[in-house]
């Protein structure tokens, strides 16, 4: 995942990480079929009409993304001296940025035909470990 952001944390510093769940990125745009691998098997290149904020915008853009599994993210954090304090998954998105969504509660969106059947967002709280060997009593 490149240069790790733990270098910007002081020992004992907290990292709060929230991201769309990799399960979301497995689906095609209409959430009708699985189109992509859950695991990071390389770059995904797509062309999209409009933007996430305005699907009708007169813009065509190509984008590149990678799907990082939960195990890949957690292993990366742990291997960079971060201790996982909490991990949560949510069955909704705080943003109305997908097709065919419904707002089932204020500012909580789900894919209409999937209801609460898939995780859409996850969060991690991690703490940078304090290197005890540097502190002497």
Task: Itemize the secondary structure elements and their pairings.
Layout: E1 14-20, E2 44-49, E3 60-65, H1 70-79, E4 82-90, E5 101-105, E6 108-111, E7 121-128
What's the short version?
By secondary structure, the chain is mostly beta strands. It is built from one helix and seven strands, in the order βββαββββ.
Strand content bin: 25-35%
Rough outline: globular
What Rg is obtained from the alpha carbons, in whole angstroms?
18 Å
Unreliable stretches:
none
Structural class by secondary-structure content? mainly beta
Q: Estimate the helix proportion, in percent.
A: under 10%
Q: What is the tally of helical segments?
A: 1
Q: What letter string, H or E per element, gives the SSE order?
A: EEEHEEEE
Beta-strand segment tally: 7
**Amino- and carboxy-terminal Cα gap:** 37 Å
The strands making up the biggest β-sheet line up spatially as 1-7-4
Q: Main β-sheet: number of strands, strand sense, barrel status?
A: 3 strands, antiparallel
Mean pLDDT score: 90
Key terms for this structure?
mainly beta, 137 residues
Explain what you see.
There is one protein chain. The strands form three sheets. Strands 1-7-4 form a three-stranded antiparallel sheet, with helices on one face. A two-stranded antiparallel ribbon has the order 2-3. It is mainly beta. It starts with 13 loop residues before the first strand and ends in a 9-residue tail after the last strand. A hairpin with a 2-residue loop joins strand 5 and strand 6. The chain contains one helix and seven strands, in the order βββαββββ.
């Amino acid at each position: 995942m490149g240069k790790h952001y733990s270098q910007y944390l002081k020992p004992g510093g907290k990292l709060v990480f929230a991201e769309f769940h990799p399960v979301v990125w497995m689906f095609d745009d209409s959430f009708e079929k699985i189109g992509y691998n859950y695991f990071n098997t390389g770059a995904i290149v797509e062309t999209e009409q409009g933007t996430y904020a305005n699907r009708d915008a007169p813009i065509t853009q190509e984008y590149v993304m990678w799907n990082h599994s939960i195990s890949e993210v957690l292993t990366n954090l742990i291997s960079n001296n971060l201790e996982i304090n909490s991990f949560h998954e949510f069955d909704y998105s705080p943003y109305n940025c997908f097709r065919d969504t419904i707002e089932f509660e204020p500012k909580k969106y789900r894919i209409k035909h999937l209801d609460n059947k898939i995780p859409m967002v996850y969060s991690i709280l991690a703490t940078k470990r304090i290197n005890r060997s540097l502190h002497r009593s």
